[in-house]
Amino acid sequence: MQPLRTADLFRRTDHGRGGWLPTATRRLAFEWHARLHHHSLRQVAHALTHPALSHLRGSDPQLLLRPLREYLWAGLTPRDRAQAFVAHYAWLLDALAGSALDALYEQRALHVLEHSLGGSRLGFALAPGHGLHREGELDLHLRLDGAVLLRASVCVVPTRLLDAAAQALGERALVIGSLHAEHGAAAGLQTLARLTHSSRPRALLLAVLQGLCAGWRLGAPLGVSSRAQLHRHQRKGAQRFDTDYDELWLELGAKRRLREHWLLPAAPEARHNVQVPPHRRTAQQRACELRQALFGQGTRWATNQP
Question: What is the pTM of this model?
Answer without folding.
Answer: 0.90
